[in-house]
Amino acid sequence: MSQPLTVNARTYRLPAAPTIVICVDGCEQEYINQAILAGQAPFLAKLVEFGTVLTGDCVVPSFTNPNNLSIVTGAPPSVHGICGNFFFDEEAGAEVLMNDPKYLRAPSILAEMARAGQRVAVVTAKDKLRALLGHGLQGICFSAEKADQVTLEQNGIERIVERVGMPVPSVYSAELSQFVFAAGLSLLREERPDLMYLSTTDYVQHKHAPGTPEANAFYAMMDHYLAGYHAEGAVLAITADHGMNAKTDAAGRPNIVYLQDRLDEQFGVRSTRVLLPITDPYVVHHGALGSYATVYLGDSQAAGAVTEFLRGINGVEAVLTRAQASERFELPPDRIGELVVLGERLTALGSAASQHDLSGLNVPLRSHGGVSEQKVPLLFNRKLSGIESARRLRNFDAFDLALNHLA
């Protein structure tokens, strides 16, 4: 047997069979439960018989970028450096997207496996993740969003749209995730990668609650492809980057606390800077509203007063100092503000009302970001062994469990 590989202080066996780790964006566990109850997910319903059904914790902030990078590095943001979709670069003095690989501080399991001679493939729904997930990777890596632009030189594959047999979907559609699953099945059958990572989009979960016809249809589609991977002999590890909750009042109206407006009113305009790390290029379905915010203070002496004020706002679950948040959530302290604010389960946090376009919210607001969206599925199509009962399971244990602990 080949020597195990050590990445970010964790050791992984090389795949003994094609192994697919799947991150289902926004997969609140109730979506699976409701699809099973409706008879729409027969493969997932049977996992308990021949596989393993567990629950794990995702990284907080429960956003896409930090969790996908935690999954593929097997480490928290304090190690890999990606603590949001968006952050304030203090050196540059600007708010920037964390899509550039220059912000990464650790190698991925994917890149190291490829360096060790394994055939590796990555398919992500949105192109924003492609550069981060593919950093240092010698293999196949492309996004469904720009599948019509793939080249052998840049992406390790060509003519994927022709192979999949689907047109490139809208970035705001369920079909974008379907393209990921369909491309994964094509790669499994034709290229037979040793290791594959698939990452979807949470468009459906932002728009539709568990048990709705649209949500059940999405999970029926996913179930079909999972059964296909299983039939091809692949080892499957299925998890999520975060859960999803309604952020509404009892009438279905958006339940939002605009932190920047409240702080400006209390302490003066430009005395603080509220930053929302959920912000990315795709905000139509959530209006850049989530349940996690970070606050930069112009006057460090005001930290106590600002903290006390924020804690008194209805809908705010917790206010943590930089040191407290870094320790509790394993975050890089140099990439968050002096304060971290968490919203309650039904509350979204905004900056200033004038900075949010809610015109695209034609259904009740659903979003994520706080500890209320931290529980996610950890599912496998094999039985696990050698796991300590007291071990805290994380979504970024997916590669460890799939490669080191499956029967």
Structural notes for this entry:
- By secondary structure, the chain is of the alpha/beta class.
- The protein folds into two domains: 5-244 and 369-404, Alkaline Phosphatase, subunit A (3-Layer(aba) Sandwich); 256-366, 2-Layer Sandwich (Gyrase A, domain 2), CATH 3.30.1360.110.
- Helices cover 31% and strands 20% of the residues.
- It has helices spanning 29-37, 42-50, 64-73, 77-80, 109-115, 130-133, 152-155, 160-164, 174-190, 203-207, 213-231, 259-267, 303-311, 322-329, 398-404; strands at 5-7, 10-12, 19-23, 52-57, 86-89, 94-97, 120-124, 140-143, 195-199, 235-239, 245-246, 256-258, 272-275, 292-297, 316-321, 339-343, 348-350, 366-367, 375-380.
- A seven-stranded mixed sheet has the order 4-19-10-3-9-7-8, sandwiched between helices. A four-stranded antiparallel sheet has the order 13-14-16-15.
- Strand 5 (86-89) and strand 6 form a beta hairpin.
- Helix 1 crosses helix 11.
- It starts with a strand and ends with a helix.
